[in-house]
Design goal:
It is built from 5 helices and no strands. By secondary structure, it is mostly helical. The longest helix has 31 residues. The protein binds fe (ii) ion (2 copies).
């Protein structure tokens, strides 16, 4: 094992966090599907799959470095939303929380002089800039639409990449 036990433990926790995001976005996708908004439903389904890929990226890194991955159950995610804005706000909150988690992980790796993990984490540092930006812009669009969610559907169709995993490089 070429990474330290406390770093491996923190990475395991982040695997769980990414799976939590996977479930959160799956539920949001179901919410929009239920509302008859297929583009938003498809967008969050792709986001959910991206989160699964994030989790697997860390899972594979743990395997590669000889640190045995361990999985715990994910904490509950929000299942009910009063409106579209609340659902997207929840997604943005998740991304901001994830950004903090990644920052903390980088600090743990640096404190352990673990340049292997530090280097690995840079992909996530960059990814979070895009994730937060994407959700921020979507939230702004929902607000501008003032209840006309068909305009948000059009925005998602025109602006959101449709290829799952393209960003994850898989
Ligand atoms: Fe993620
Ligand atoms: Fe994300």
């Amino acid at each position: 094992m070429i990474i330290k036990p406390n770093v491996a433990e923190a990475l395991n926790t982040q695997t769980t966090n990414e799976f939590t995001n996977m479930f959160a976005y799956l539920v949001i996708s179901a919410y929009f599907d239920d509302q008859g908004l297929p583009e938003l439903a498809a967008f969050f389904l792709r986001q959910s799959e991206d989160e699964r890929l994030h989790a697997m990226k860390i899972f594979d890194f743990l395997l590669e470095t000889g640190a045995k991955p361990t999985l715990t159950g994910t904490p509950p995610v929000q299942n009910d939303f009063v409106n579209a804005e609340a659902a997207v706000q929840y997604a943005l909150d998740q991304e901001l929380k994830t950004t903090g988690q990644i920052n903390d992980l980088v600090s743990i790796a640096l404190a352990a002089d673990d340049h292997t993990t530090h280097n690995f984490l840079q992909w996530f540092v960059t990814e979070q800039v895009e994730e937060v930006d994407t959700m921020t812009r979507l939230l702004q669009t929902v607000r501008h639409a003032q209840g006309n969610l068909l305009r948000v559907e059009d925005y998602v169709l025109r602006n959101m990449p449709a290829i799952v995993g393209a960003e994850a490089g898989v």
